[in-house]
Amino acid sequence: MSKPSRYYKKKTILITGAAGFIGSSLVRVLSQIDCTLICCSRDIEKLEIIPPVKARVVNREIDIRTPSIWEEILEGVDVVFHFAAQTSSKFANDNPCMDVDINLVPIARFVETCQKKAIWPDIIFPGTVTEAGLTQTYPIDEMIQDAPITVYDINKLAAEKYVCYYGTQLGGRGVTLRLANVYGPGTKSGRPDRGILNMMVMRALEGKSLTLYGDGNYVRDYVFIDDVVNTFLMAGARFDSTNGKHYVLGSGVGHTVREMIETVRDLAAQVAGRKVDIDYVPIPTDLSPIEFRHFVADTSRFSADVGWHPEVSLEEGITRTMKFFLGQKNR
Questions:
Q1: What is the pLDDT of residues 167-221, one digit of tens each?
Q2: What is the tally of structural domains in the chain?
Q3: Pick from 177, 211, 248, 294: most CB atoms within 10 A?
Q4: Could you tell me the residue range of the domain that residue 140 belongs to?
């Protein structure tokens, strides 16, 4: 057992959004630890926990928008990983009030509930690197001046500020991890504008062509799910260094969108024997301006504070992702 994993032994850990991509991946790791694991989701039937399991697992079907939800689920909890969220930038722009209700209000209610009940569980919260806005130079670290241009990013940034307030002003402990493009084995995203790399992998495995908008020369940072899960475990285990902070997290390596798609194409042939084409199409007129950014994470601050380093390259990560989805088809 790794040192971060040992930290969670005997603790009561609550994960919202436990059936989602990152949440379910974290559940799989923590279920192998002697702890109490409270898995919360709107659709708990989608959560699959693979035996053997060392944790005492409690499943709770909840709606994070319920005003009293934290009063119902926080009693006796030591650590909260809060993944329940709405993740589509387009949906947020079209429905700003609904996005506030899902992505911001629950964090404010968490802070309020902890104050009222005088309980102070640790909270680890996922932010997004797009909170910074239309970045053009890179790598990007925590010193960048945030200039969000979508409702989604505005609300994620506001929620991040509540987490910081909780950790620095109220006596609790909280940290936000701003994530780059996460991909890898796991559950499918429910939004068509999220999980693009995984979507490309699944299309390639089905022998379908891959769509590339324009020249595809925008730079992205693709970070593998196992590396991301480790960031959350390590951030929560090192609150002596991480409390009240936010971190910019990714692989630290930039690839253009075109390079990513070409890598998927090439590996589909090698790993699965699938020959797929790339369709080059004009950029849609309704594409969000946030897509016209360049981004690579500078993870040196997080590495210095907790000792984390990404381990999985893009090629290895895509290969492992393909093998996972091929295995799913053969089950």
A1: 999 999 999 999 999 999 988 765 555 689 999 999 999 999 999 999 999 999 9
A2: 1
A3: 248
A4: 9-183+224-252+298-310
